[in-house]
C-alpha cells in the first residue's frame, strides 16, 4: 500500500467514524424531541381547524378528521358549576378513549385547566408508565362540550438505543468496506501518478522520455504536459550541449588567433628594445595591433549577435541589395573589378530582420571583393514562383571542395587567402550562417571551375 493509499483510507475512515459518532449523539439527544415536536404540530394544526367549525359540524366530521390526521378525537359535555367537575370530565374522557381502543391508567385534568379552556386550548402529556407510551392530548372547549384530540407517543429511548447499536455495527462494517474499496479504487488513480513520479525522476536525471497515460481526466492532461516538457527539455539540453561544444571550440580558436598578433607585437617590441629595428618594426606592431583590435571587435559583435532578438519587418530586398552594392562602388573601381548585376523586374518584399539581412549582404559582397582572383563579381537577385534567390559569385584560386564545409566555421580562413593583404578574422561567414539559420533560409556555397558562389533562398514573401 502506497502512502497515498494509506492517507486516503485513513482520511475516509476517520470521516465515517466522525459522521457515525455525530449521528449517534444526535439520535440520542434530539430525535425524541423532534418526534414530540412533530406530534404537537399535528394536533395544534388540527386544533386550529376544529376551532373554526361549529359544534354540530365538528361532531359529524370526527371520523373523517381522525382518519386524515391519524389521531383520536373524543368529547364530553361539561358543567363547570359542578363540585366534582374535574372527576367527572376525567372519567368521561377515560371511558371515551377506552371505547376507541386507548386504555389509560393515568389520566387527569385539573379544575384550573378546565377554567383555562374558556380562553384557550390546553395541551397535556400523560405518561402511561410500564405501557411504554404517553398520550399527547389537546383540549378545546366549544359551547358546553370539551373536545380532546389525542395521539399516542411511543417511548422511543429503547428504540433509539437499539438503532444506535445497529448503527455502530454498520459503521464498523462501513469502515472495513470503505478501506477495501478505497484501496481498489485509489490504485486506479495512484498507478498513473506513480508512473508520472518515475517519469519526473528520470527527467530530473536527464533521462528524457515520455509516458503514455490514458485516464480521460486531469491526470492524462498532466501527463501530456509533462511529456511536452520532457521533449522540450531534451531539445534544449541537446542545444545547450552543442552550444557548449561550440563555445569550447570557439574559445580555443579565438585563443589561437590572438596568439599570433600578440607574439609578433612582443617579438618586434623586443627587437626595438635591442636596437635591431630596421625601420619597419613599429609599422608591423601597429599593423598587428589593428589586426588584434579588429579581431576583438568582431568577437564582441559575434558574441552579442548570438543573443540578438530579431526585429521582424517587411522591406524590399531589391532596394536593400542595391544600397549595399553602392557602398562598395569606390572599392570595386579601385581594384578594377567588373561587376555584373542581374535583378529581375519583380516584387521582392520579404519579412525578416532588416539589419541582419544587410549584414549578410555586406559580408558576401566584401568577401567577393577581398578574395577575388579574376576581377569579376556576379550578383543575382532572381524570383521563381514564391522563392527569391540571392547569389554572389567571384573567382578564387586554389580552393577545393573539401574546404567548402569548413568556411562557415568561426576563424576558418581559406589557405589561398592567408596573406597580409587578404586575411580576415574568419568570423564573417559564421555570422552569416547564424543569421540565415535563425531566419530558416536555405543557404550554401558551390565551386564551379575557378569560381565560388554563395547563395541563400527566401521562401516566404509578402
TrEMBL record:
Residues 253-444 form the Histidine kinase domain. The chain crosses the membrane at residues 166-185. Keywords: ATP-binding, Cell membrane, Coiled coil, Kinase, Membrane, Nucleotide-binding, Phosphoprotein, Transferase, Transmembrane, Transmembrane helix, Two-component regulatory system. One of its GO terms (cellular component) is plasma membrane. Residues 219-257 form a coiled coil. The keyword Transmembrane applies. It catalyses: ATP + protein L-histidine = ADP + protein N-phospho-L-histidine. It is a multi-pass membrane protein. GO terms for molecular function: ATP binding; phosphorelay sensor kinase activity. Residues 187-238 form the HAMP domain. Its EC number is 2.7.13.3. It is found in: Cell membrane. This is histidine kinase. It comes from Romboutsia lituseburensis DSM 797.
Amino acid at each position: 500500500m502506497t502512502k497515498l493509499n494509506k492517507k486516503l483510507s485513513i482520511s475516509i475512515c476517520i470521516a465515517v467514524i466522525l459522521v457515525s459518532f455525530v449521528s449517534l449523539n444526535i439520535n440520542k439527544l434530539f430525535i425524541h424531541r423532534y418526534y414530540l415536536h412533530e406530534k404537537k404540530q399535528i394536533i395544534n394544526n388540527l386544533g386550529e381547524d376544529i376551532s373554526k367549525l361549529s359544534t354540530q359540524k365538528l361532531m359529524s366530521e370526527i371520523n373523517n378528521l381522525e382518519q386524515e390526521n391519524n389521531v383520536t378525537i373524543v368529547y364530553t359535555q361539561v358543567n363547570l358549576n359542578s363540585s366534582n367537575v374535574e372527576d367527572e370530565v376525567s372519567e368521561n374522557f377515560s371511558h371515551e378513549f377506552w371505547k376507541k381502543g386507548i386504555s389509560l391508567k393515568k389520566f387527569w385534568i385539573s379544575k384550573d385547566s378546565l377554567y383555562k379552556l374558556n380562553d384557550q386550548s390546553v395541551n397535556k402529556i400523560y405518561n402511561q408508565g410500564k405501557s411504554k407510551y404517553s398520550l399527547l392530548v389537546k383540549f378545546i372547549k366549544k359551547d358546553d362540550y370539551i373536545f380532546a384530540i389525542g395521539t399516542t407517543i411511543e417511548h422511543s429511548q429503547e428504540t433509539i438505543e437499539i438503532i444506535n447499536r445497529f448503527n455502530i455495527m454498520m459503521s464498523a462494517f462501513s469502515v472495513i468496506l470503505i478501506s477495501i474499496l478505497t484501496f481498489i479504487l485509489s490504485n486506479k488513480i495512484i498507478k498513473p501518478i506513480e508512473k508520472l513520479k518515475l517519469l519526473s525522476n528520470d527527467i530530473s536525471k536527464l533521462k528524457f522520455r515520455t509516458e503514455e497515460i490514458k485516464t480521460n481526466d486531469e491526470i492524462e492532461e498532466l501527463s501530456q504536459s509533462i511529456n511536452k516538457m520532457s521533449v522540450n527539455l531534451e531539445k534544449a539540453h541537446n542545444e545547450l550541449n552543442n552550444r557548449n561544444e561550440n563555445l569550447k571550440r570557439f574559445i580555443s580558436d579565438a585563443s589561437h588567433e590572438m596568439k599570433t598578433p600578440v607574439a609578433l607585437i612582443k617579438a618586434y617590441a623586443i627587437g626595438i628594445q635591442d636596437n635591431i629595428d630596421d625601420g619597419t618594426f613599429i609599422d608591423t606592431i601597429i599593423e598587428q595591433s589593428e589586426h588584434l583590435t579588429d579581431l576583438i571587435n568582431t568577437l564582441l559583435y559575434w558574441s552579442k549577435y548570438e543573443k540578438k532578438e530579431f526585429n521582424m519587418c517587411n522591406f524590399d530586398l531589391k532596394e536593400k541589395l542595391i544600397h549595399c552594392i553602392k557602398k562598395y562602388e569606390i572599392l570595386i573601381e579601385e581594384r578594377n573589378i567588373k561587376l555584373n548585376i542581374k535583378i529581375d523586374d519583380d516584387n521582392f518584399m520579404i519579412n525578416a530582420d532588416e539589419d541582419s539581412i544587410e549584414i549578410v549582404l555586406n559580408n558576401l559582397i566584401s568577401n567577393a571583393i577581398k578574395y577575388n582572383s579574376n576581377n569579376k563579381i556576379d550578383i543575382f537577385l532572381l524570383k521563381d514562383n514564391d522563392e527569391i534567390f540571392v547569389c554572389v559569385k567571384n573567382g578564387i584560386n586554389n580552393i577545393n571542395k573539401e574546404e567548402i564545409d569548413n568556411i562557415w566555421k568561426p576563424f576558418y580562413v581559406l589557405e589561398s587567402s592567408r596573406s597580409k593583404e587578404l586575411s580576415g578574422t574568419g568570423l564573417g561567414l559564421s555570422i552569416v550562417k547564424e543569421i540565415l539559420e535563425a531566419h530558416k533560409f536555405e543557404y550554401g556555397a558551390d565551386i564551379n571551375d575557378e569560381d565560388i558562389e554563395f547563395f541563400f533562398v527566401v521562401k516566404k514573401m509578402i
